[in-house]
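Quick check before the chapter quiz. The format below is the same one you will see on the exam, so make sure you can read both the input and the output lines.
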Amino acid sequence: MWLSVVGLCVFSCAPKLQNVEAPIEQVEDFSFTGTEAIPEKWWTSFNDPELNILIDSALTENLNLAATWEQFMAAQAILRREKSSLWPDIELVARSAVSRPEPDFAGGENFQAGLAAGYEVDLWGRIRAGIEAEEFRAEASFYDYQAAAMTLSAEISATWFQLLTFRKQLDLTNRQIETNEEIIRLIRARFTSGQIRAVDILRQQQLLESTRDQKIFFETQLRLLQNQLAVLLGRPPQNLSITPESNLPDLPLLPETGLPLELIRRRPDVKQAYNQVLAADREMAVAIRNKYPRISFDLSAQSRSNNYGNLFQDWAYTLAGNLVAPLLYGGRNRAEVDRTEALKNQQLFLYGQTVLNSFREVEDALIQEQKQKERIEVLERRLNLAQKTNKQLRIEFLNGLSEYLDVLLSLDQEQQLQRDILEARQTLLEHRITLYRTLAGGFETERTDSEEF
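Here is the expected output.
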C-alpha cells in the first residue's frame, strides 16, 4: 500500500519531458526548388578536386574547429560526471597517529582504517533529470561542432572561389594592359602625322595607368586571400604557397529545397537550439523536484587498534538512513522554479527565432541566386553591345567621323564590364554556397568517424 502511494506521487508530481514546438505560425513551402539532391558533403557538387582536398584538410587541421570539438569532449565529461551520481560513493579511510608521551595515552586509538559509502535514492527522478539536462547539453555541443564544420567548409569554398576569381581578374587585367599599351603605340604614330591630338594620348595613358592600378589591387587581394586560406587550413600564411590550377566551376543544378519542417530536422544550428530548450526543461524539472524530500543511506565499517597487528580484528559497523525534507526556505525553492521556467521560455523563444532565421536564410539565398542570374544575363548583353559599339567607333574614328574620346570611353566601359562579369559570376557561386549551407545538414568528419567517438 505504502509503495503504491509513493509510486503515485512519483508519477504525478514529477514533470515529464514533452515535445517542443517552435512558437511560430504554420509555414508554407519555399519560393523556389530544384530537383537535385544535396550530397552530405555538399561542396563536391562543384566537381573541384582542389577544393575537396582543401576542405578535407581544414576539417582536420583548423584550430577553431578543434577547439569546438574539445568543448564537446568537455560536455561529454560533464555528462559522465553527472551519471556517477546514480551510483554509491565509496571511500577508503586510513589514519595513523603517534601520541607523546605514550604512557599518558594508554589505550588510545592510534590506528584506524575503514570504508564509507553513501547513496541517495533518486525517488523523484531529480538526479536523472539532471543527467538528462547534461545529455541534451552534450548533444547541443555536438551540433555546435557540426555547425562550425559547416561554416568552415562554406568559408573555405567562398575564399577558394574568390581566389580563382582574382586570379582570372589579374589575367584579364594583364591582357587589358597589353591592349592599352598597343593602342598608345598606334595613336602616337597617328599623332606624328597630325591625325590625333596630344590630349587623346594623355587620356589613353590615363586609362593605361588606371588599368595598372587595378592590377595592383588584384595582386594585393590575391595575396590576402592566400593568407586567409592558409589560416583556415590551420597553417601560418608564410609557410603556405597556393597556386590555384582550377577554373571557376559551372553552377550546379538548383538543389531540392524540401519541406520547411525537413529543414528544422536537418540543420545543426536549429537542432542545437532545440536541445538547449530540452536541457532547460530538465533543469526546471530538477528545480521542481528539489522541493520534495530526499532519502539517502550511509554505511561505514571501521577498525581501530593501538598497533598494526590488531588493526583488522575488531570492526564497528554503522548503517544510517536519512530523510531530508525542505520545510522553510523563505520561498527560495519556488523562486528557483520560476527562474528555470523563465530560462526555459527564453530558450524556447530563441529556438523559434533560430527557426525563423533559417527559413529567411534559405529564402534570401534563393532570391539572391535567381536575381544574380538575371543580372549576369544583363551584364553579358551590355558587354556584347559595348564590344559592338567599340568596334563601330573605331571604324568611324579611322574614317575621321568620331572623336577619339568616344573610342576611349567605349573601351573603358568594355574593359570594366569584363571585370564586372567575372565578379558577378563569383558572387553567384557564393550565393549557391550560402544556399547549400542553409539547406544541408551535418556531415561526418574524421573526428566523428573515429572509433573513440
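If your answer matched, good. The longest strand covers residues 294-305.
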